[in-house]
Amino acid sequence: MALKAVHVSDVPYLDQVPEKASLALYSTRFSQGVEIGRTSFKPSKFLVVGHRGNGMNLLQSADRRMKAVKENSILSFNAAANYPIDFIEFDVQVTKDDCPVIFHDDFILTQENGTIYERRVTELTLAEFLSYGPQREEGLAGKPLMRKTKDGKIVSWTVETDDSACTLKEAFEKVNPSVGFNIELKFDDHIVYQQDYLVRVLQAVLHVVLEYANGRPIIFSSFQPDAALLVKKLQTTYPVFFLTNGGTEIYYDVRRNSLEEATKLCLEGGLEGIVSEVKGIFRNPGAVNQIKESKLSLLTYGKLNNVPEAVYMQHLMGIDGVIVDFVEEVTEAVCKLVKKPEDVEDEILLEGEEKVQNRPQFSQRELSFLLKLIPELIQ
Questions:
Q1: Long-range contacts (CB closer than 8 Å, 24 or more residues apart) made by 39-44
Q2: Max alpha carbon distance in the chain (Å)?
Q3: Cα–Cα distances in Å, from 18 out to 178, 235, 238, 302?
């Protein structure tokens, strides 16, 4: 991709946004209200979001849960929906022939006659993309799907319960309608994209969303700052969150390198919130108050979110929700530990009955001590 700055103000709004679309559709989960330049987005409860459905695949892990179900698949999405989960998160890219598909990695790998072949997902047609892995048609064999691990090894993408690749349209049609979609707009970290390319990709995604959402709660998110700003410019129906590593990794684009920069981007672009790597929050817990004072919502992702105690700590800090891999375990822990005020009142009224679960109680002084201690533990 050639280098070219994106001028968000030059991009027209989509004219496909239906008049009947409104945040009133989501009143069961979110409070409503409008501020200048930004839709008010405040979850009415602590959200649990399934990472790539029922959890990402970590093929080199000894933990079977990381290889139980193929990530970013219809099967994984519906498996997550079996638990008291609010959203599923998944990655969307757009094929060469303008079809939004769900896949995390920038490249798709296969093996033929002992040789590994690698192709960029966005340079494939839809038919080519769907030819990898298990096939829908019985008796039809797909190309073997491989994956490159973080240490550079190429391994067979083998999981206990496999499933075929899918499109965004299929997700809307086949996934339990009770669960919301956190759609991550996926772009390559190493490419500076042209404006016209970003607009084309985002319009392809929005066309599917606006046609098939049918009242399903939607959140858009992206690590790509210009894509996040553009998707907010192109539509006003759905909230947009900026994804950040929170300073745990450094990029050429300074907007990606801290929670302070993420907050600035959201405020300038009218975005509704931030999704941060949880370590970035624990290393800089003071940023939570700054984000909340800016009237932005805050979600987190990362391995620590698979630890119930770390999730509960975030609830105490005022974070709005977590993206997790161990959906069953974390939703169970949240149901026990994170209760609404009316639930606590009900427990008090039920005299003579033994409480099933006692929640940890922290004084303000103890909580302040923990917030000072956590950054030292995370370093």
A1: 39/236, 39/239, 39/272, 40/272, 40/295, 41/239, 41/272, 41/273, 41/297, 42/297, 42/320, 43/86, 43/297, 43/320, 43/321
A2: 71
A3: 22, 10, 12, 35
Question: In angstroms, rounded to a whole number, what is the distance separating the alpha carbons of residues 181 and 171?
Answer: 9
Q: Which residues pair with 42 in a beta bridge?
A: 31
Q: What is the CA radius of gyration of the chain?
A: 21
Return the exposure string of 35-64: e unless at least 16 CB atoms fall within 10 Å of the residue's CB, then b: eeebbebebeebbbbbbbbbbbbbbeeeee
- The CA distance from 79 to 49, in Å, is 13
**What is the per-residue pLDDT across 203-260, written as a single tens digit (0 to 9) for each?**
999 999 999 999 999 999 999 999 999 999 999 999 999 999 999 999 999 999 999 9
CB atoms under 10 Å from CB of 286, counted, come to: 10
Sign of CA dihedral 47, 52, 53, 56: negative
Residue written as tokens 């929170």? 246
CB 149 within 8 A of CB 185: no
Of the candidates 128, 127, 89, 91, which has an alpha carbon nearest to the alpha carbon of residue 108?
Answer: 128
pTM here? 0.85
Tokens coding 130: 């769907």
368, amino acid identity: S
Single-letter residue type at 94: V
Cα 354–chain centre separation: 38
- What is d(CA 266, CA 248) in angstroms, rounded to the nearest whole number? 19
